[in-house]
Amino acid sequence: MPQLNPNPWLFTLLITWLAFTLIYQPKTLSYLQTNNNTYTHKCLNTNSWNWPWT
């Protein structure tokens, strides 16, 4: 059963995960977030809606 032999793909899997964790992840995490969550929502209108079909 050749699909149980880890020799062809285990080394490729390990190298890929090392590249993701050591090279790509710090580069992508170093970018600034573009969504600032400093906006506070204040509800000014607290009246209920007057639906025409009710």
Task: Tell me the β content.
Answer: under 5%
Order of helices and strands: H
**Rg from Cα:** 27 Å
Structural class: mainly alpha
N→C terminal distance? 69 Å
Q: Which of globular, elongated, flat, extended, rod-shaped describes the shape?
A: elongated
**Quaternary structure annotation:** single chain
Summarize the main sheet.
none
Low-confidence stretches: none
Number of strands: 0
Q: What is the number of helical segments per DSSP (H or I, 4+ residues)? A: 1
Protein name: ATP synthase complex subunit 8
GO biological process, one term: proton motive force-driven ATP synthesis
Keywords: ATP synthesis, CF(0), Hydrogen ion transport, Ion transport, Membrane, Mitochondrion, Transmembrane, Transmembrane helix, Transport
Family: Belongs to the ATPase protein 8 family.
In short:
With 54 residues, this protein is an all-alpha fold. The chain has one helix at 7-29.
Describe the structure in your own words:
- The structure is a single chain.
- By secondary structure, the chain is mainly α.
- Helix content is 43%, strand content 0%.
- The protein is built from one helix and no strands.
- It has one helix spanning 7-29.
- It is elongated.
Lay out the secondary structure.
Layout: H1 7-29
Notable traits:
elongated; 54 residues; mainly alpha
